[in-house]
Each structure stands twice: as C-alpha cells, then as structure tokens.
Design brief:
Length: 202
C-alpha cells in the first residue's frame, strides 16, 4: 500500500489543511500499518510553472532536447501518482480555488496521452481509479447557505481528478478557519466525519 500525500499549504505551523491531511494519513496507516507514505510538499519544494519547452511538448511541437527536463519532471510526477494506491491532498482555498503551487502540480500531471486521452465523448481518464482523500481549509465559508463567496475549489478538484480517471473522492472540509469559534466547530465536524469513515478498532 502506497500513500501519496500532497501538501499545498504555504504554512508549516498552524496549517489547518496540513493537520487534517496528516490525521487522514494517520487513519490510513492505522488500517494499513505497512503503508509507505510519500510526502510531496508543494510549498517546501514548489514545482516550476509550465515553461515553453513543456508547452511545446504538450502541443506536439518537436524541439529535440529542449523538452527533456520538463517532460522528465512531469513523467516522474505521473509515475509517483501511478504508484500510489491512495492519495491524500491537503490544501487551502486561495482566492476561491487551489493555491498556485497545487495548480502547478496539476499542470504537470493532467497530461494528454499520459493521464487522459481525448475521445469523441470528451477527455477519458487513463489512471486506475483509487481513493482520494481531500483535506480542505478556508478562512471563510464557501459551502452551504451561509456561504458568501464562490467555490471554484471543489468543482475544480473534482473535474481535474475525474479527468484522470479518479472518481473515488472523499472531501473533508474545514471552513471558517479565521474565526476561532467557526474553526472549532469545523474541526469537531471533520473529526466526526473521520471517525465515521475510519472507525477506530474497539
Ligand atoms: C493568498 C490567500 C488567499 C486566500 N483566499 C481565500 C479565499 O478565497 N476564501 C477563503 O475563504 N479563504 C481564503 N484564504 C484563507 C485561507 O483559506 C485560510 O487561512 C486557510 O485556513 C488556509 O489553509 P491552511 O490553514 O491549511 O494554511 C486565503 C489565504 C491566502 C493566504
């Protein structure tokens, strides 16, 4: 059992999404004690933005040699993804969607003919389906009746993951982290959901 843990918060101490993602990893390790965890910390080691060589390679423009670095980086990230039996993604909402470091990872792994293929019906995922656990944190509210901002985070992540063939998605959401009473209630709910999804042995 291989767990790929992707962390996108720029904060090391005090990150709600990182703490929740770590709790999910811990629960998975409780079920699979021999699980190997690969941590890809996108803030500690940010991926470069898409460059000309990579854009050319994806557009099918032949530039011998030039594409090698970018394509090799993308290949390595896709291999890491293929080798994972479960994914845990911890991410904040930044300006209604994913932080730029996570967008950069997506640009490297959501790749034509590698993780999806075009078809008359639309893009078809090429990855084996496997569970993806998403730990999300936002300063305000974006889900439910009290939400006062758009949500380009959950539909976007769902579209990206579905496009690659990943449909078994489990969202754990901490909303309202900037207000201590909302954060406390959100944590209580998230931990209850964790207990429900990963019941501890009696
Ligand atoms: C650049 C930036 C943009 C943000 N944009 C939003 C936003 O659009 N909506 C929101 O509710 N919170 C927003 N926040 C607040 C974070 O989502 C919130 O602090 C969250 O807890 C961060 O995740 P973390 O605790 O895992 O670091 C933003 C924070 C930063 C730094």
């Amino acid at each position: 059992m291989n767990i790929l843990h992707i962390s996108a918060s720029p904060r090391t101490a005090g990150s709600h999404s990182a703490r929740l993602a770590a709790a999910i990893v811990e629960r998975l390790q409780g079920i699979h004690p021999r699980a190997q965890v690969v941590l890809r910390d996108l803030s500690a080691e940010p991926l470069p933005h898409v460059d000309a060589a990579y854009a050319d390679a994806l557009a099918g423009v032949a530039r011998p040699g030039a594409a090698s670095d970018a394509a090799a980086r993308s290949d390595a990230l896709i291999t890491e993804l293929e080798q994972a039996d479960a994914l845990v993604i911890g991410t904040p909402m930044h300006n209604f969607t994913v932080p730029s470091v996570l967008k950069s990872w997506i640009d490297h792994v959501l790749r034509i003919h590698r993780t999806f293929a075009p078809s008359p019906e639309g893009k078809r995922g090429l990855l084996r389906n496997r569970p993806v656990y998403l730990a999300l944190a936002s300063g305000g509210l974006f889900l439910g009746e009290a939400a006062r901002q758009p949500d380009f985070l959950t539909p976007y992540l769902r579209a990206v993951l579905n496009t690659m063939g990943l449909y078994d998605l489990h969202f754990f959401v901490l909303q309202g982290t900037v207000r201590s009473e909302q954060a406390a209630a959100a944590w209580q709910q998230a931990l209850a959901l964790l207990d429900q999804r990963f019941p501890r042995a009696a």
